[in-house]
Specification:
By secondary structure, the protein is of the alpha+beta class. The protein has helices spanning 39-53, 59-69, 82-91; strands at 9-10, 17-19, 27-29, 71-72, 78-79. The N and C termini lie far apart (40 Å).
Amino acid sequence: SSDLHRDRVLIPSGGRTGACNSGYNEFIYWGNNSCNSWAIPYLCGVFALAMQINSDITYQRFCELVIESAILNSQGLKVLNPTGIIDSLLDKL
């Protein structure tokens, strides 16, 4: 049930989440068969990008930014927003 995930930030994973051609900065979810093992490398990549901007960022602070910058999908679930994280860090330079 999606109620289980209302207080979590979802991470796009697998080949089932991809860019959508219907608008700017939009993604499309193609089904329930995503590959969860791709979520950790994806998150690590976003953390590495954050460290490029602020090499002193802690993982705790990064997690706070993940929550603060998350976007809501059409089902009201929070989704990781790498652009929001990067913008937030750039605003503090």
